[in-house]
TrEMBL record:
<dbReference type="GO" id="GO:0044614">
    <property type="term" value="C:nuclear pore cytoplasmic filaments"/>
</dbReference>
<keyword id="KW-0539">Nucleus</keyword>
<dbReference type="GO" id="GO:0005543">
    <property type="term" value="F:phospholipid binding"/>
</dbReference>
<comment type="similarity">
    <text>Belongs to the GLE1 family.</text>
</comment>
<protein>
    <recommendedName>
        <fullName>mRNA export factor GLE1</fullName>
    </recommendedName>
</protein>
<comment type="function">
    <text>Required for the export of mRNAs containing poly(A) tails from the nucleus into the cytoplasm. May be involved in the terminal step of the mRNA transport through the nuclear pore complex (NPC).</text>
</comment>
<keyword id="KW-0906">Nuclear pore complex</keyword>
<dbReference type="GO" id="GO:0016973">
    <property type="term" value="P:poly(A)+ mRNA export from nucleus"/>
</dbReference>
<keyword id="KW-0813">Transport</keyword>
<keyword id="KW-0653">Protein transport</keyword>
<keyword id="KW-0963">Cytoplasm</keyword>
<dbReference type="GO" id="GO:0000822">
    <property type="term" value="F:inositol hexakisphosphate binding"/>
</dbReference>
<dbReference type="InterPro" id="IPR012476">
    <property type="entry name" value="GLE1"/>
</dbReference>
<keyword id="KW-0811">Translocation</keyword>
<dbReference type="GO" id="GO:0015031">
    <property type="term" value="P:protein transport"/>
</dbReference>
<dbReference type="GO" id="GO:0031369">
    <property type="term" value="F:translation initiation factor binding"/>
</dbReference>
<keyword id="KW-0175">Coiled coil</keyword>
Length: 262
């Protein structure tokens, strides 16, 4: 509910503003310790990324309420946004976007961690689980860049707005595609903020969609084995339908004005 989200936002904002906040039966304030504010900024940013790789990866719609709170907090407390990006880029290098290359002397285990895989006791997480986490983080990022906290002053620009999404898409399409990962990330990104990019960039956006269909999807196909076609097929269908309809559908779960009256 919108009212519940406001409560969450106010609590976080009060904490970061140095006001006393009630939690688990006690009152806490960042002023209680010289590094209190830095610690809270760090842990809060880390928690938002965890929401992406956890909650959003399983419930795609949850990207929007989480993103709108972070967007508002980022506007009032830019440090949280900077640290959020640092955590996000480390956990999901594809959010830069960047495909790390294996350097000489780097162990396979270390390299897999650089690619975003979780490695515990030399055991690497399964590909499906890895892709799900990356998907959740990209969806959260794609939601953040298009949303603003509705009760802010709206005087300044969005602290990390759609221009960053446009840049991400352009840079992504300049990279050589990877099997599995590239098709999934592009589909996630376009499903979540394609509609917002279409409204903002118009004809330039449609040129990009045409490029994806005619030039980039064949390049993904060239590196994709027959067992990895699932996500690529979904991307192809999505792009084709959008080009035919000359419309990108609104993402599922987007927060409508009526949501804020709940």
């Amino acid at each position: 509910a919108g009212s519940k989200l406001r409560e969450v936002f106010d609590k976080i904002n009060n904490l970061l503003s140095g006001k006393p906040v009630q939690t688990e039966g006690q009152t806490v304030s960042v002023t209680q310790h010289p590094q209190g504010l830095q610690f809270v900024c760090y842990k809060l940013a880390e928690k938002f990324v965890r929401h992406g790789e956890g909650e959003v990866s399983f419930h795609h719609d949850s990207a929007f309420p989480i993103a709108v709170v972070l967007s508002g907090i980022w506007e009032l407390h830019p440090r949280v946004g900077d640290i959020f990006l640092a955590h996000l880029h480390k956990k999901c290098p594809y959010s830069v976007p960047f495909y790390p290359a294996r350097k000489e002397g780097t162990s396979m285990e270390e390299y897999q961690r650089m690619l975003g895989y979780e490695v515990h006791d030399s055991k690497v997480e399964e590909q499906d689980h890895f892709l799900k986490r990356m998907s959740g983080m990209i969806r959260l990022y794609a939601a953040i860049i298009q949303l603003r906290w509705p009760y802010g002053n709206k005087q300044g620009a969005h602290p990390h707005g759609l221009s960053y999404g446009w840049r991400w898409l352009a840079q992504m399409l300049n990279l050589e595609p990877l099997a599995d990962v590239t098709a999934m990330l592009l589909l996630d990104f376009l499903e979540v903020c394609g509609n917002a990019l279409m409204k903002q960039y118009g004809i330039q956006f449609w040129k990009t969609m045409f490029f994806i269909q005619k030039s980039y999807i064949p390049r993904i196909e060239a590196v994709t084995s027959s067992g990895q076609m699932g996500c690529l097929s979904r991307l192809k269908n999505f792009v084709q339908k959008c080009l035919q309809a000359e419309e990108i559908p609104l993402p599922k779960g987007i927060l409508t004005p009526s949501f804020w009256r709940t």
